[in-house]
Amino acid sequence: MIEIINAAAQAIIVDSGRYGFSDIGVPHSSALDMFSYKAVNFLTGNEDGAPAIESFGPMFSMKFHEEMVFAVTGAWVDGVIDEIPFTSWRSIRAKRGSIMKIKRVYSGFRYYIGFSGKMDIDQVMGSYTTNLECCFGGLDGRPLKKGDLIRFSNITSIEDRFILKDAIPSMDPPHTLRIIDGPEIDYFTDDAIEKIFGKKDVSSYVVSTKSNRTGIRLEGNPVEFKEGVEKSIISEGILPGTIQIPGDGMPVIVLNERTLGGYARIASVAKVDQDMLAHLKPKDEVILKRIDIEEADTLWNTKQKLIKNLLKNE
Question: How far is Cα 128 from Cα 13, in angstroms, rounded to an integer?
């Protein structure tokens, strides 16, 4: 069992997602950085799909009421276990009574904490992940708070594991996001398309403070619609990474908590770069780089092969 002492800015329980319910408006709400999520399960000997904690902000802390292995992936942190520093992206052994603290996040934004046992929580619609808007999943459908107790079953002792630093993507700004054309790109003027894609198909924006797990708002050059074109569309299904343009012309990148959208979709973040969306924090610079769908497919397939080889249990 672990006990939450401080839940930092926000900490929730996530997994690989709640799928098959988009038709009734239930999003998949998975971990935002799936590579980091898969890695934390690998480091703690769990199957892909096991629940883990996704958090952001410093001062997260918890107490171990039994011996187990844990790991922290995602954002690089300064952490201590019983005041002894530990390193991100490797397995760490905690004793009964040990206290773990995240003192500082120095690269990236969201981090993931996994354990060598399965959280004793109920699945909702086939998933453990937290849906904050619908108030279900995770621990009572809410962020973790001081005093929360999470019990575990099937705690195992595993060999020490680590991920080579060279295999971990950079999480420092500026963040380059490769994007592909969206279905409503023709709604926008040539000048607007030039602004969002920029000179030589590159442009720069800044992450707004009005960003959360639902979407990331960007600030920069407003994107202009063609004269006479409606600034909204009939609501349609949308996927994570979709870049919508609302009436004010400022791009919004959709994350994992929406199934429908009614704004024109000028572009989409290529899937190969969607994990990075977990690490865009307010005031970070974002560079958008236009690629075609064939390149996006090639990049994604290459990344999947690398991850499979990196996280294989041998």
Answer: 7
Query: For residues 241 and 254, what is the distance between their CA atoms, to the nearest angstrom?
Result: 5
Alpha-carbon span 166 to 184, nearest angstrom: 38
For residue 58, CA distances in Å to 11, 32, 38, 141 come to 11, 18, 22, 22
So what's the pLDDT on residue 195?
Answer: 73
**Cα–Cα distance, 7 to 61 (Å, whole number):** 7
- Say if residue 311 is exposed, middle or buried (CB neighbours under 10 Å; 0-12, 13-18, 19+): middle
Domain boundaries of the chain, sorted by first residue: 2-167, 175-310
User: Region 87-99: what's the mean pLDDT?
Assistant: 96
Check residues 40 and 222 and name the one with the higher pLDDT.
40
pLDDT band (50, 70, 90) for residue 232: confident
Q: How far is CA 233 from CA 85, 190, 248, in A?
A: 52, 20, 15
Report the distance separating Cα 308 and Cα 314, nearest Å.
12
Q: Which two tokens stand for residue 294?
A: 């064939």
C-alpha Rg value of the chain to the nearest Å: 20
Distance of alpha carbon 172 from alpha carbon 298, whole angstroms: 24
Q: Does domain 175-310 have CATH number 2.60.120.580?
A: no
Spatial distance between the Cα atoms of 232 and 264, rounded to a whole number of angstroms: 6
pLDDT tens-place string over residues 186-216? 998 888 887 777 655 667 899 999 999 999 9
